[in-house]
Amino acid sequence: MSNPVYLALDVPQLDAAKALAEKVRGHIGGVKLGLEFFCAHGAHGVHEIAHLGLPIFLDLKLHDIPNTVAGAMHSLHVLEPAIMTVHASGGRAMMEDAKAAAGENTKVVAVTMLTSLDERDMQRTGIEGTPHDHVMRLAELAEASGLDGIVCSGKEVKSVHDQWKNGFFVVPGLRPGGKATGDQKRVVTPRQARDDGASVLVIGRPISKADDPLQAARDIEATL
Ligand SMILES: O=c1ccn([C@@H]2O[C@H](COP(=O)(O)O)[C@@H](O)[C@H]2O)c(=O)[nH]1
């Protein structure tokens, strides 16, 4: 089985991002480029990272009207990402059009409820119920829209996996100690997420901000 860890390259300098990915490349399965990276370096930066030869997860979390999201997906097609994200709350038509505009080798997954949010945050945005119920509802919508899978926390991935057997599940909010830290609220360990059915484990700061990123990546790999 290939390494499910995608390293989140949330670092502002391109050279630092390349050096970090190069350093840990033997202990990860791919790299995730998000808003911080893409706003700073755009398509050029993606091409630079692609030279490393690792699969690329372009995590731009698109959320707009269907025509606009489809146009963005079409423009990004040329970068040949292995995985891309849209927000499930953009609705069915937006997800259908996003999938139709993506390259055939790109998995399109829907962000359900950010791992930085808990039930209280959810209620403040006017959504009642539990995070679990909300994620399950949006997972059903993403599947009906023809997407490949979803992004959810490790707290929900087992239930989603039980409901959507061949889905592709991306899980961020992972901490080796399993404790919520900083901005991440719905947190589990990488091992727990993998055991519960995650296809991809997104890990950023536990590696990128470690005193020794290579050792941190090795330690995480050893738990899997
Ligand atoms: O619900 C979500 C969706 C995406 N992310 C992204 O994953 C990484 C996590 O980084 P850490 O440093 O390991 O916390 C980051 O790039 C987020 O944008 C998420 O955390 N939660």
UniProtKB/TrEMBL annotation:
Coiled coil: none
Top-level taxonomic group: Bacteria
Broadest EC class assigned to this enzyme: lyase
Pfam families in the cross-refs: OMPdecase
Keyword ATP-binding among record annotations: no
Residues at the catalytic site: 59 (for ompdecase activity), 61 (for ompdecase activity), 61 (proton donor), 64 (for ompdecase activity)
GO CC field: cytosol
Keyword hit for Lyase: yes
Matching PROSITE patterns: OMPDECASE
Key words of the record: Decarboxylase, Lyase, Pyrimidine biosynthesis
SMART domains found in the cross-reference section: OMPdecase
E.C. numbers: 4.1.1.23
Pathway(s) this gene product operates in, as recorded in its UniProt entry: Pyrimidine metabolism; UMP biosynthesis via de novo pathway; UMP from orotate: step 2/2
One of the protein's GO biological processes: 'de novo' pyrimidine nucleobase biosynthetic process
Reactions mediated catalytically: orotidine 5'-phosphate + H(+) = UMP + CO2
MF terms in GO: orotidine-5'-phosphate decarboxylase activity
UniProt-listed Gene3D superfamilies: Aldolase class I
Binding residues annotated for substrate, in chain numbering: 10, 32, 59-68, 115, 175, 184, 204-205
Role played: Catalyzes the decarboxylation of orotidine 5'-monophosphate (OMP) to uridine 5'-monophosphate (UMP).
Family: Belongs to the OMP decarboxylase family. Type 1 subfamily.
HAMAP family tied to this protein: OMPdecase_type1_B
Quaternary structure and partners: Homodimer.
UniProt name for this protein: Orotidine 5'-phosphate decarboxylase
